[in-house]
Structures are given as C-alpha cells and as structure tokens.
Specification:
By secondary structure, this protein is an alpha+beta fold. The chain has three domains: about 10-125; about 165-230, Single alpha-helices involved in coiled-coils or other helix-helix interfaces; about 250-365, Heat Shock Protein 90, CATH 3.30.565.10. Helix content is about 60%, strand content about 10%. The chain has twelve helices and five strands. It has a five-stranded mixed beta sheet with strand order 1-2-3-5-4, covered by helices on one side. Helix 11 (about 280-300) links the parallel strand 1 and strand 2. Helix 1 (about 10-30) runs antiparallel to helix 6, helix 6 packs antiparallel against helix 7 and helix 8 (about 125-200) runs antiparallel to helix 9. The longest helix has about 80 residues, at about 125-200. This is histidine kinase. One of its GO terms (molecular function) is protein dimerization activity. It catalyses: ATP + protein L-histidine = ADP + protein N-phospho-L-histidine.
Length: about 375
C-alpha cells in the first residue's frame, strides 16, 4: 500500500481534537509559561495533519516542536496532551510507512527526548524513565503495524472477491450462451423442416404453404432476437456439451420433485395456462427457479420454500421465498450473480433480500424483446 496524496477528514479532525484538549488543559491549569505551551501544541497539531501523506516528516516534526516546551513553557511532566500527540505520531510511523523507516523516526524522537531529559529537566533520571518512555512509544507503533497489515489483507481479500465475482459472472454468461445456442439451433432446425414442408405444399396447397412460411418468418425473428442476446463464444466447461434439449417451465414439475426428494418442502403455485414463451425466456425462467430453490435448500432455516410462477401477455413473474437462517440468505451469493446476469440480459427486473425473517426473490422477465 502506498501513501496517499490527499487528506481526508480524520487527518484534520484528530489533530484538531487533540489541539482543543491541549488548549483547554493549559488554559485551565495555567502552568508557568502556558501561553508558549498553547502555541507549541497548536503548531505540533497543525504539523500532525500531514502525517498520512508524508509520515516520516509530519509524524516526527510535531515531537521536535513539543520537546521545545521545557525551554519556553511548561515542563514535560506537567501537561498530558503531548502524550496524545506522541501516540498519534508513533502510530502513524507504523501505519503509513510500508517499510521500517518508521523505526528511524522513532529513534530520532527518542534521541531528542534524551537530550531534553539531560539538558532541560532538572529531575534525577533512572531506568524507570527509560521504561516509561518505551511504554509510551512501543504500543502505538505495534498497533500501527498491525493495522497496516490488516488493511493490506482486507485489500487483497476484496481484490480476490472481485476476481471470484467476475469469474462467476463469466461462467454464468458462458452457461447462458450454451442455453441460447440450444435454443437457436432448435429454431433453425424448425425453420428448415417448415421450409421443406412449404416447398411441398406451394403447388398443391398455396394457402397452407403461406401459413407455414409465416411460421418460418416468426421463428426466424425469434432466432434473430435470441442471437442478439448471445454474449460469448460457446465453451465446453464441465462437459456441458449441450446434447440435451434446453429446459423450460414445462420441466418445473420434475425440478420441484427433485428438490422435494432432497428434503425441501415446497409450496408451489404455477399457472396451468402459461402461454408459449420465447425460448430464451423459457430456459432462463427455469434456471432462475432452479437457483432460488437451491438457495432455499442450502441456506433456509427450516427447509421450506414458496414458489409462485405466473405469466401475462407482457411478462413472466417468478416469486420465491424461504425462511432466512442469516448465513447465506442475504442475497450475496455467487448464484444470484448469475441470476442477475440472466435477468439483465433479457431486459427484466430482479429484486431480492431479507424481509420479516424471510429471503425473497422476485424476477420479472419481459415477453417482448426490449
């Protein structure tokens, strides 16, 4: 992680808060030379603002300023605010430097403390003073290093999660492409058969041949619409060669039966008079139901689910819900990334989330090409 070049609010608010505490302390207690103390603390806090941008300079310089206090203002053992400045400065040397240069800054600070103790502090000093100073310096630096390491790990984890998400999206798009390939291949096969039939009828039954050719035109238009949705060149992952017909809502009874056999109690409401659906919508609706039931089986708290599938002349509506266990029902799983891809590809709408203790998914797929 590199040092950033812009300040944020905390860069200013933390030193400002320390400055307020320091001024209130000195004005209230009025140590000898407290006015100079106020000035030096304000300068130190102002320098501390740049600690994240240039930590070696702006985390070391404030201590150099405060160590002048015994020469102009209160003694080192009188005000307590300089300890706060020291803690923030030492923490910054550990937090914002990627190497061990912060130890060099600490060494400079300790050297200046030693000079002030020997030259400006009339008290007698012994080993306990060394222990006291080290006790002030060591914890902030260690905390800064630990915080830095955790921040780096968090950044790496977020990058890895983004890579996983992108891979999930890519795999789902490839799967969509395979499904769409099956749909388009079926449409073209149907067009070939219908065209051959029209050729046989064109002389003997022109009216019927015209009707067959109209069906060919409709099938062709649907195939063109599906082709426009094809996003990827087909790939053969996990031995999915697409040798079986693409599933659709007509296959829902078998899908529901399979999940019930796996232990999921499903309350199903599927309209019996579903209209003839475009092939791309049909297979995507099946996949969405499949993913919703998979989530209910994996993450539901009591292995129950509700499923409702209805269709109008304008859209197919899929509603699925299950009691949320709080582990995976928040809608953050990679499976829902694939569902989002399918719905977006078809120009539909998708909402999902936990409400009143239940995870709910609602997908709407338009039946008219957007």
């Amino acid at each position: 992680m590199q040092a950033v070049s812009r300040l944020n609010r905390l860069d200013v608010l933390v030193p400002a808060g320390i400055a307020v505490v320091g001024v209130v302390e000195l004005v209230t207690l009025r140590f000898e030379g407290w006015g100079w103390g106020v000035l030096l603390e304000l300068v130190a806090c102002a320098l501390l603002v740049g600690r994240r941008v240039h930590p070696l300079i702006f985390a070391t310089a404030p201590e150099m300023v405060l160590l002048l206090m015994p020469y102009f203002g209160p003694q080192l053992d009188e005000p307590s605010t300089p300890i706060l400045v020291l803690a923030v400065a030492i923490y910054s040397l550990g937090r914002w430097l990627h190497d061990n240069r912060g130890l060099g800054g600490i060494a400079v600070i300790l050297l200046m403390v030693l000079i002030v103790y020997l030259g400006a502090d009339a008290r007698e000093h012994d080993l306990s003073d060394v222990v006291f100073v080290l006790a002030l310096v060591t914890p902030p630096y260690v905390l800064g290093r630990l915080t830095r390491r955790l921040a780096i790990q968090k950044e790496l984890l977020e990058e890895r999660q983004e890579l996983v998400r992108r891979e999930a999206v890519r795999q789902e798009r490839d799967r969509i492409a395979r499904d769409m390939h099956d749909v388009i291949a079926h449409s073209i096969s149907a067009m070939v058969v219908q065209t051959a039939a029209a050729q046989d009828l064109v002389r003997t039954d022109p009216d019927r041949a015209e009707a067959v050719l109209a069906d060919v035109a409709d099938t062709g238009r649907q195939a063109i619409a599906e082709t426009g949705r094809l996003l990827h060149v087909l790939r053969d992952d996990l031995d999915e060669l697409g040798l079986e017909p693409a599933p659709g809502l007509a296959d829902l009874p078998g899908l529901v039966a399979a999940f019930r056999a796996s232990g999921l109690d499903i309350d199903v409401e599927v309209a019996e008079d579903l209209p003839s659906l475009p092939a791309g919508v049909d297979v995507s609706a099946y996949r969405i139901v499949q993913e919703a039931l998979t989530n209910a089986l994996r993450y539901g708290s009591d292995r129950t689910a509700r499923l409702r599938v209805v269709a109008t002349s304008a859209e197919v509506s899929i509603e699925a819900s299950n009691p949320s266990s709080g582990t995976g029902g928040s809608g953050a799983g990679l499976g829902l990334v694939g569902v989002s891809e399918r719905v977006a590809l078809l120009g539909g709408r998708l909402t999902h989330g936990v409400r009143d203790g239940r995870f709910e998914l609602h997908a709407r797929l338009p039946l008219v090409t957007p």
